[in-house]
Queue: 3 jobs
Job 1
Amino acid sequence: MADTYTPPKVWTWDKESGGKFASINRPIAGPTHDKDLPVGTHPFQLYSLATPNGVKVTVLFEELLAAGHSDAEYDAWLINIGDGNQFGSGFVDVNPNSKIPALLDKSGPEPIRVFESGAILLHLAEKFDAFLGNTAQRAEMLSWLFWQMGSAPYLGGGFGHFYAYAPEKWQYPIDRFAMETKRQLDVLDRNLAEREFMTGDHYTIADMAIWAWYGQLALGRLYDAGEFLDVASYANVQRWAQAIDARPAVLRGRMVNRTFGEPELQLHERHDAGDFDTQTQDKIGE
Amino acid sequence: MADTYTPPKVWTWDKESGGKFASINRPIAGPTHDKDLPVGTHPFQLYSLATPNGVKVTVLFEELLAAGHSDAEYDAWLINIGDGNQFGSGFVDVNPNSKIPALLDKSGPEPIRVFESGAILLHLAEKFDAFLGNTAQRAEMLSWLFWQMGSAPYLGGGFGHFYAYAPEKWQYPIDRFAMETKRQLDVLDRNLAEREFMTGDHYTIADMAIWAWYGQLALGRLYDAGEFLDVASYANVQRWAQAIDARPAVLRGRMVNRTFGEPELQLHERHDAGDFDTQTQDKIGE
């Protein structure tokens, strides 16, 4: 990449390029192999991984269950994206975009698919009429929910890729995406200077969505970039991120489909509330 | 940028870097100057520019009016982002993220703000109960609407920036984002092989959102990249993009807040349905 170049008239695929995730990035969609998805007994079947986009949804499920919505029981199956599970035919049927998380909702008369983490959050929150905030604040909640979806690609696909995953470190893209990420943190910080949660007094799916990315970034958990982005300087984001992080449902949500980091936080699949205790005891016993 | 470098411990802002849009990209949020927004007489006040994100919303307004929703009358005010209008205090009050489009909804008991194009689309479609598709397909519609919001940053902020706007052309980021853009086009092409519109038989806000970016890309209108991305090869996207492009409301939506391209398509502000005719006659007469 180092030198300026002249692009060809028509782009072609060089399968050797692409950095850490070269093996899972392709210019074509669709399945690469036949593979059915497992289906459990609960109304909701989640196929995911504990990346920020995955954590959004498991946090919501755990918050719904903690709030007494016993109909929100779910099976969480692991999709290992490094192994290409997202390109199996069954997964592509649920999410033609081959990204986690993907949801099969069996709670109604016909099973339906829902993909994109923001859509899954809104679908579930509306189904249970929970974590939507006040009706009068619906537009504000939607604004922040969509803000997260349109903003985080600059953090993840931009900053995270070029700072942590690209084959070399280049200044221009790191500068470009670090600047935008810091601007986004400042947008949040100014909003949270005036409000307890993103849309006001109520903890909503907009908080869950934004926390999974920007809250965890502020807590130093993404890309080892806390110092580089001076995340400690966003005091209101810190206060809010820590408050959400202290919720037991959020800890459980972080554990589900987690295959990296501290062993005691890894619950590779979740099928029952008791799985968390078993997992913790197993790991502590190791 | 050309050479690999060692990032500093803490990122700092070099105001000279950034390419074509350096002057409007900042690492901090908030207003740069005091400036009230104009407010017209219609229930909806839109502050926007005819980029793809802006066009989504003006297309919806024009479709609503064409479908007989006379309560959807709107004033569309021009926000010139090259001049920094998005950093005026009035604009920041409506959208703290300083991006177009932003909406002030005066149709209810209290004026409310809505920002992020996807949130504006959903807010308006729900208010008028229009262009949402079948109730049974709501989850599918939401999935594709959120898909657009999470995907287009790779097209616009990734591919478009590095292919068209960055100060030099570098192969690695162009390859990275061209590959992802082509994958996204293929996702759409496979879906549209089986359906007239993105979610089935009904034209919805998901189509409007996706068309503004990927439809216009397929029609060769973005970044002069039609040949490079071989957009002609996505036959189903072509069929769908052309069908939507032929709708009179879509042409009107493209014209509103447009300050570039063909003069006869530029209606800098829109306050009345008659503005389109006047504009066209003025320009033809020039």
Job 2
Amino acid sequence: MKNKPLVGIIMGSDSDFNVMKQAADVCREFGISHEVKIVSAHRTPNHVKEYAANAHQRGIKVIIAGAGGAAHLPGFTASHTVLPVIGVPVKSKSLDGLDSLLSIVQMPSGVPVATVAIDNAKNAAILAVQILAVSDKNLYKKLIDYKKKMEKESLAKNKKLKLI
Amino acid sequence: MKNKPLVGIIMGSDSDFNVMKQAADVCREFGISHEVKIVSAHRTPNHVKEYAANAHQRGIKVIIAGAGGAAHLPGFTASHTVLPVIGVPVKSKSLDGLDSLLSIVQMPSGVPVATVAIDNAKNAAILAVQILAVSDKNLYKKLIDYKKKMEKESLAKNKKLKLI
Amino acid sequence: MKNKPLVGIIMGSDSDFNVMKQAADVCREFGISHEVKIVSAHRTPNHVKEYAANAHQRGIKVIIAGAGGAAHLPGFTASHTVLPVIGVPVKSKSLDGLDSLLSIVQMPSGVPVATVAIDNAKNAAILAVQILAVSDKNLYKKLIDYKKKMEKESLAKNKKLKLI
Amino acid sequence: MKNKPLVGIIMGSDSDFNVMKQAADVCREFGISHEVKIVSAHRTPNHVKEYAANAHQRGIKVIIAGAGGAAHLPGFTASHTVLPVIGVPVKSKSLDGLDSLLSIVQMPSGVPVATVAIDNAKNAAILAVQILAVSDKNLYKKLIDYKKKMEKESLAKNKKLKLI
Amino acid sequence: MKNKPLVGIIMGSDSDFNVMKQAADVCREFGISHEVKIVSAHRTPNHVKEYAANAHQRGIKVIIAGAGGAAHLPGFTASHTVLPVIGVPVKSKSLDGLDSLLSIVQMPSGVPVATVAIDNAKNAAILAVQILAVSDKNLYKKLIDYKKKMEKESLAKNKKLKLI
Amino acid sequence: MKNKPLVGIIMGSDSDFNVMKQAADVCREFGISHEVKIVSAHRTPNHVKEYAANAHQRGIKVIIAGAGGAAHLPGFTASHTVLPVIGVPVKSKSLDGLDSLLSIVQMPSGVPVATVAIDNAKNAAILAVQILAVSDKNLYKKLIDYKKKMEKESLAKNKKLKLI
Amino acid sequence: MKNKPLVGIIMGSDSDFNVMKQAADVCREFGISHEVKIVSAHRTPNHVKEYAANAHQRGIKVIIAGAGGAAHLPGFTASHTVLPVIGVPVKSKSLDGLDSLLSIVQMPSGVPVATVAIDNAKNAAILAVQILAVSDKNLYKKLIDYKKKMEKESLAKNKKLKLI
Amino acid sequence: MKNKPLVGIIMGSDSDFNVMKQAADVCREFGISHEVKIVSAHRTPNHVKEYAANAHQRGIKVIIAGAGGAAHLPGFTASHTVLPVIGVPVKSKSLDGLDSLLSIVQMPSGVPVATVAIDNAKNAAILAVQILAVSDKNLYKKLIDYKKKMEKESLAKNKKLKLI
């Protein structure tokens, strides 16, 4: 990505990468410049702060943060910026993602995190595109096309069904 | 509100109003034009569709949708628009809000809903402001001020504590 | 199926087909004309509406709808028809089916969905047959026979047990 | 009710009556003959069996069964009849209705219970009306009218909202 | 088993046998005559009733009942007998055994089921032996020996540990 | 109670007494000698051990143990005796009794606790009577009478219903 | 408190004070110098960092942190210090404390939080005393006395019971 | 380990060893003398008591106890000592660790257990080191180094990421 990134994709650990790379894929598909970083709320808190506090100045418009277990990264990021922060609850080894979800979504008044479904980094990126599209007509059109394509693909599966 | 609304606040039932009015309060605080409507995914689905499908043309930039139980309003709205849709899980009579939360947040790939904490319509509105602020420097500054004010108020509580 | 279908079996995605085909199997076993379609509450909402709104005119008597996660298809269908809608919560990748179940069963007053067990499309179809049998003596007899056969098969397993 | 009842409303205990009477109210509203009885899966199992086994002969077309905790009444009823059985999970003193819901909805293959939302006996009755309407055009029209009325009432709440 | 069985081990389906055979193994280990049967609360309710109602006359002293999902067998059995009924929640395909557990343990006042851990048919049988031992000194001694053996085996594992 | 107690009713704290006294009431109703004691697994572990280890010698036949939260009393008691131990999960201030239930019922192989419903000390005592009745014909008859009385009372509620 | 505080008690909001003041009470009872502060992980993150990072230098030995909902304060504190951090999950308005508990206890490898029961700030302080007592014989003796007093009080309740 | 152990690592069963050995590994890494033992709250309660009651005299400063299901070992240990007891909830075969977690963390007032994440024995040991470091400057420095190393390793993963 040569352009200055508009979307920052961060995650707590490289074990989250398999899930979070879907977010990068969607950004690429929509032609949105982005960056991917590992910053841990618990292991590198100062880097999270620095990342969150400087993101706006660096031109970042939306931050996508994925984490699992006691998943504090999205909320911690949101405490250091007023940019929209999208949280991806990554399923961890126990409790089937419930801990990750509740740790991310149940934020206190004043500091929201826009939470998406467990392990659904793809939706996090689509939401980021929707946010950017609020002031970008071209992107808005791409989203309309994306939605139409989804509709077509969904309907097309009916043909496949008939062959079963 | 004389201006064309930028934020649409919708809810499934008037019983959700006590929670959802907090969203309107925040919009007012930030000087953002908004509208409040009751449209039910299950009782008035055609109006939801119409609302969602026309929102963009009417100048709406972000939709906040609150619902409880099998809370389909946010997801149903998101299926008819590519505007960012923020979902507020409203606690219903049983299960302490878990049903509302899961029905809203666990959306399938392609159709995200930006979910906030149970009953936290205030955060939904702050998130809406953050989204609008992506392309509105003035609003961005207001958010920075809001954050500073929150910080001050939080610290000020320590004085109160000493008097206890 | 040459006859006009009496039972409509719909699902949100082709990934639900492995579960939902059990419903078609039961219909076939009872000689009930049926159809199987993929219509997504979130990706093809207009087709869901069309399907639900026209089902009665097309001769459909009961609709079986299966979906997972934030499973809105059954409720969304029920919002557009007064035909009985049977919901099958399909287990999704996280939360072991709890999200699917709560999203389907916790419908608000006025718009019921007849919910069956997680992944139990077979029971959805038996329920559909029971509903049709309310006004079809022949079908009622078949259900009685089916119940007797189940009873026999269950008892017969005791013999198998003795050989272990 | 002078006519032979078409809908049987049963419950495990008189403490369930506050919830279950909503089902009787809906039947009355639709002019459907019905009866209300207390039969307990655990305290009067023989009466449940008798009730379920003879219901069809007595002209009952649909059974609505409400129970809480380890709520076996709906499933137990379904084991003795092939009439459609609708289960209402009644919230009990602990666990916020989750025990009632799971005990009713998670029925094994072969013996479905059409489960509605926790404490939502109203929806159970609407579902019963929908089932009867499959072969009763007059009732079908009443349901259409009911749905339209609901729609109107829901929309009308918007006016009330403006006055707040 | 030539002797008249003292312990009746019943289960809802042959799929429960892998779990429930542990109960038979413990009975055998303690030299307690027992029988194993498949009777389903939902598929063969009359046989469950017959089994439960006649058990006392046939010399059965304790019944162990295992079932999964909406697990009604133990409670249904308890409704037809005053013998102690021990319930084994068998983990089913979804919800990790929570549905089975709550369906069995949350019995209403008047009709208890002695519930053991999920899938722990072994403990059900030990509990049955403890119940029989209330009036059987020989059995009581065997239980004391069993406990001592368990203690020894547990302590012996420390030696194994040192070799790791 | 002048006679040597047959049933020992123990609880972790006097705050459990409101729930646990129901067990004493049932014992009284059946004419079974019993004793009530507060012994805490965590505050007076040596007394729990002493109580459990000596219970058999003192003539106790069944122990009923109630506790809440991380409810260890029933399991701890069971570790020091081979008498049947019945556990009553007492609902505590958070989590609606789920913690109490799981802490009591999920015992490891070798050391069962006969668990009853949350806060249902009445059922614990009925279960204790059922256990004693295994070798006491008189008690067995009383249980049959109790069951018949319950049945009558349950049926009688139907008359009350008609007056509503 | 004139002495330099050994225990720092922090909480996310003044609404947590009713719970957290129990921790201060216990410290006072054991004569341990302490301080109480409101610092919010989300509203005043820099103050949390400062607090945590400087605590050791200021002579703090143990930090007790209480928070509710997406309760990040304990984990965030632990990310900035290697002092033992004790987390108190404060029950919030929804989900009965489960969100607070999971957000605090499920910390990733490398950054533990010593979690106590929901709303149990008293235990947090006792744990803090136990930690300080590892190197303070006097405090160790006080804990022994405290335990004995608890034991006595628990036993004494049996007398009260007899009077009921 | 030639030195007198400072940390006692105990577990309920050898099946917990795979999880609990991580605690031993961390102790080794920090050069802290420790011992590993299998003592079961339910199978060898007297040895647990003995272990806990004598630990202080033997020079043990902190006890780490791991157990699963109705996991009583940590709480039982804490009832017999005033040393800090750290509990590790070991995931068992059902319920994904929720039973283990609640059985350990929800301790009553007066007897805390410092609970860490499900299966995270590594964090239990780090917490033990933090507790010992309260009065051991050398250990405190090692913890600071450990934290720095973690930070470096976490940041280094970003380089790896670029190569993907």
Job 3
Amino acid sequence: MLDLAIIGGGPAGLTAGLYATRGGLENVVMYEKGMPGGAITQSSEVENYPGIKEVVSGMDLMASWPEQCMRFGLKHEMAEVVRVSRPEGLCFKVELSDGSVETAKSVIVCTGGTPRKAGFKGEEEFFGRGVSTCATCDGFFYRDKEVAVIGGGDTALEEALYLANICSKVYVVHRRDEFRAAPSTVKRARENGKIEFVTNVLVEEVYGDAMGVQGIRLKKKDSGEVIDLPVPGVFVFVGYDVNNRVLKQEDGSFLCDVNEYGEVVVDLQMRTSEQGLFAAGDIRIMAPKQVVCAAGDGANAAIGAIAYVEHLHRENLC
Amino acid sequence: MLDLAIIGGGPAGLTAGLYATRGGLENVVMYEKGMPGGAITQSSEVENYPGIKEVVSGMDLMASWPEQCMRFGLKHEMAEVVRVSRPEGLCFKVELSDGSVETAKSVIVCTGGTPRKAGFKGEEEFFGRGVSTCATCDGFFYRDKEVAVIGGGDTALEEALYLANICSKVYVVHRRDEFRAAPSTVKRARENGKIEFVTNVLVEEVYGDAMGVQGIRLKKKDSGEVIDLPVPGVFVFVGYDVNNRVLKQEDGSFLCDVNEYGEVVVDLQMRTSEQGLFAAGDIRIMAPKQVVCAAGDGANAAIGAIAYVEHLHRENLC
């Protein structure tokens, strides 16, 4: 029986493990089938994690975390969790892909989210080297330069507005000439002097060299005309998958409340609607999707889990 | 006219400044009359800020933050803010103690809080070297050792329960034999085998040497009997002052909603009830009072301020 199962090994999961074990919880396991570190390990440059003033790769940023966070007894199990459930009135069940089941008094789910790929040539090759899915993270690297934003939803246009504060020009590249984004957001983007719309186009490829992206080639859907934008940065916002699969029950419902996007509803203490179940990092509603925010969430959730488990012990509920 | 005024220069304020300037806001000033760094600079040992795996002093932990956070244009003004107000429909007014006034489109308030002193001999001398006001921060340094908790409120007993997970014994030292804490919390503490109540006593002094605390001397209020507890750690929870003075208006009301303890009410995006005014770190409701959480709040609030200011520009409100 675990005091706490942590699902996911990014900044939120690692920090939750550090705080939970340092706070006295025993048998705390972090389930992460790959190496710990999270999505940030795919970034080539990070300069906004406070306390690390050098510009470092995401991999380097996270290199010291596992040792620090596991020093107090956190165990890392390289296993895939397929489902977290809770039989009525009992402890949580953590089902692994090999068919085994562990029980836990409390659970913190921090499995993050995955930006969708647009599917053009060069997208994977240049990811983290000119192709980005995070304006807050990477926009500054293109200060006073031109960038392209791919997408037509709210996120794409809001991120374009964010980038317009920093970059000299922002091309919004969209395959249609209508936008899913809220009309007021479209209006603000249209009225922004730094934003130029390039619509009814398909992205052919992002091209570059060993140093990174040098441009993006588009094709007009009607005329077939090729448009070349020689931009060093391409931001892709064509959707986002919240990694909430482990919370999905056999009947298709979720173990706790999620919003219309599948993000887990939490309060300021990272408590979900299910007692003893916490969420932290990019999986939760309103996540700023920043390493320092995810880590803060993890600490916050762990402090809640410690109090919850202490309470359980007194009540002999589990 | 500032895009953003940040009131307070701890982890929340510094991180807010980093994110705001890196996100393109201009004229961003952090008001902190002393050196930046915040309350954590009074701690002698920190080992739970993720990414800094060495055990460092709070001063060393924060040493690199100002340079990193000010690299993108954040200005530090060593001035004391006496009040933030907002004349109807206009921008914020930031009043300084020298009588000057600055205007700002948005404000992030992160002035933290101050644990109250119990007032015994040795309390200041050994603060950060055995006397602590944070169980989450410092409890682990007394693993399998005995500690004393001073206080009789909810925080004191909840922190005692937290410490009981880690320490071999927790003395709860209280000057009365009745507790302000919720009866259910008192009951849980009484039933905890590691917690021993020492009531109706006054704290005479905390004593020790250059290495830190060696014990605490108490005096029975009725008999005058002296009790010596040879503990290396003393946790003081006798109240907490939220540093919300800058939000207090001339008529005694607050600029935004605060709760019964004076903590600023925020949502998950650190927005207060006043549009364009954000709160971050220990001043807000439900603050976990951890450096990483305060820093996460600061990033979160800055992202909100950037969006708010961008929106203002379009609407020409300010």
